[in-house]
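User: Hey, quick favor. My workstation is busy. Could you predict this chain's structure for me?
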Amino acid sequence: MRAVTAACPSDAELAAHVGGTYDASEAEAVGVHLDGCADCRATVVALVRARGTVDGAPAAPTLGPGATLGRYRLTRMIGAGAMGVVYAAHDPALDRAVAVKLMRAATAGDARALAERMVRESRLLARVSDPAVIAIHDVGEVDGQVYLAMELIEGSTLAGWSRARPRTVDEVVAVLVRAGAGLVAAHAAGVIHRDFKPENVLVAPSDAARPTRVAVTDFGVARAAAGAEARGAGNTGGDVELTATGVAIGTPAYMAPEQLDGGEVDARVDVFAFGVTLWEAIYGARPFIATTVRGLRAAIARGATPAGSSSRGRVPRSVRAALARMIADDRDARPSTMAAALAALGPPSARPGRALVLGAAVLGAGVVAGAVLIARPSSVPPDACTAGARTAAAAWTPARAAVLRSQLLTDPASASIIDRALATVRARASGLEAAYGERCRAAPTAPVLACLDARQVELAAVVDELTARPGLAPDAAEAFAFTIADAASCHAAGVSTFEPRWPRDPAQRRAVADVRIAAVAAEGLRDDARFDEARRAVDALATSVAAAGWAPLEAEHLYLRGGIEIIGGVAATGRELMQQAAATAERVHADYIAASAWAQLVQSATWDQRDPARGLEYARYADAASARLGRPAAVEAHLRYSRGTTRIAAADHAGGEADLRAALPLAERAAPELVPAIIQGLGLALEERGEYADAIDAYRRALAALVAAGGAGRPEEALFRARLAICLNHVGDTDAAIDEGRRATALADRILDERHPDRAIAHVHLAEVLHARGDDDAALIEIHLAQDLLRAATGPRSDLYGNALGTEAAIVTARDPQRAATLAEQACELQAFNVGDDAPTVAACWSDAAVALLAAGRVRDAERRLITALPMLERALGPDHALVANTYISLGDARLQRGDEAAAARAFEEGRARMSRSTIDDGYLASAEYGLALAIAGREPTRAHELMTQAAARWRGDPGWQAQLDDAEAWLRARTRR
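Assistant: No problem, here it is.
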């Protein structure tokens, strides 16, 4: 051991300390000296900054504009830190701007191992689909250089934003709360950041008081780096200098004590780091100042008390109390979750820049409730409940009901709709009077009275508008009645529907009513699939909406415009409008529109963007809005339907089916127009499980329910028939499948915009069933038409376009196997690019592609892909799914071509056993029997002959299997001649 005295160490000794070459005792001796020597500490800081890494290894090379990393072309350097250098870059494959982080060489260590680790971390992070978390697109390694490609956010770090202009405490807290929402989302997905600090919070624009985007970055990077470094996972020595990053997986100055000690960590380490970051942003300095880990541990143990004011202004008591708990030495004294930590900061609506995502997905009802308690007096008149009950009773009387019925009933054919609307008003009035009764008098709190007052406004508005409009269209009368919320929910915990769905000002209310009447007419055009007329009608309302000057009406207008585009127009435009609707509704507490808009976005993200993870994120926001409303049946049915089908798309079949089964009785009671779609969703669950006969029954019931509800000729019919066609094809009823497929495409072509993905999908499905019938020329016409549509609708890099390429590959395999193999590989690469290599859909794609690879003579490639796909498919679909069975059959084909008859026989036996338990067309079972006969013919000729005879019998009479039948019969004839 080198002796280190009280004299200052030499530059070489300090460099060795910075480089980590000393053992623990030597490091401790230098650390003790550094504790008391400002000059040496400054030297260490300079050394670390000059070298750029903790061990003095060279920094990552600086690359100029035009240089490439993988497929990314660098355009400029954005910044640099201890972990790496960040560049703005262009991704030519997707024609988008990205940020590329090139890891420093010392951080990378074993570059390939680090890349693999970071891929795993990024895949985990991909589950966190949240606006407050930066999106990771890609991880790669080129010539020993590891890089990440991620979303490009044009802004600055939290520190840069703080310095750009004077900030108030409220502004700082609002921005950090939005960053905290990213940590909440990450924790929900099982991801702990472990290196949260100001440099890992991006804010855009960089000088805005209320930024449009706040996102947390560098998830998993410190963790991945630590996993690759030999220096590993923790720091127990106690005296590593705090200017070095990467120690104990993170930046020590922001670390929780258990993290500094190298102990177990959970979400509370991020709570601690968040608290330190927030303290620093408010007060301009961190709560614990030290130059070594030992000193830092001692400072944390002593604790810190937040002051009542800073250079940014007064610090609210709630913020100070929350800060003190977040940075507690004892982790059990901290908030147990990030959501709890954020809630403790106080209601964001009392500050500028309330976070949309946090209000919708994290704090939910508590945010709005807090705002109302601040806005309204803490005490209420003792007779407020009695007075409210009297007002509700006076608003609706039998005499008023009779007058209204006579005014509204101008056509006897509409009597049922008018009576239903008036029954709704009567029930809401009665419910409001009851809600002002005993429960209100027992606890006349400000939130309850505020909620009841909002219902009172709604009841009065509807009665007045119905009275003032004799001859009002029945659909509009029913729509008006629907705007009165159920007052019983005002007593439910967590409900916060304090904003009425009508303005309080009579003149403004009249303007809103005029717009809503016109909107109902536009909805009728939309429901009749007259999308161009509906679009023009809604666009014509823009001036009236603006003139009304009531923000919730703006949200309603955006929602209606977005729905027309999503259902039958340009899906991408609709999605953007729906996002605006959700944002506007959240801002003004229009929770019905918020819940409905988020639920629509769930569907659009899942089926138009093929992004169920994003869909499930939107479902969380919809759920929060529904909870604030008290979970009314109609809203809850819509949410559960949307979330259920998205869960099925995300391979959570049990969860999806549970949501759909819960949605059905709700819809039957309160939203009958949703019943056909929910039944279709249950059919999708059955189809995904491989229960095709039951799925056919469900799709037919969905079509019958759609016709009964007057929905024939709508886009849903095209969707239902397309899925029905696929399932009919699976069970071998190709004639009926082609009939349904043609009806689906004819309807889709007639009513859907060329840029709507569902129009192209209908043609893809028709191509599939035509190919199954053996009509490949007609199938090619359909698939090429679908590809042309998809190029316009989603672009040639989408997974939908990849699906279409895969279908074309299947069609041309027999006539051009080399082209088929190329198409199949392109299809699966596009799938993997969009959803990740380990997604079940990618495994299914490679299982299908193996047929083309085998036909092209690429046996080893096919076998490799099949071996990789099998366990993924078994996990996702279960062992007896037809697709799993078919993958075993293809594996048998590959091994048979390779000459390994014993291995081939085992694979065919597996495929045969599993296929026999499925409900798919028996032709697939015959394929297993045919292959097994070939594999065992040499050693079991009698059984082989029996199997081949059985296969031929299954194929006989079905034109879709004619080629296979010809082969089987030729084999049998050859054996007979012998």
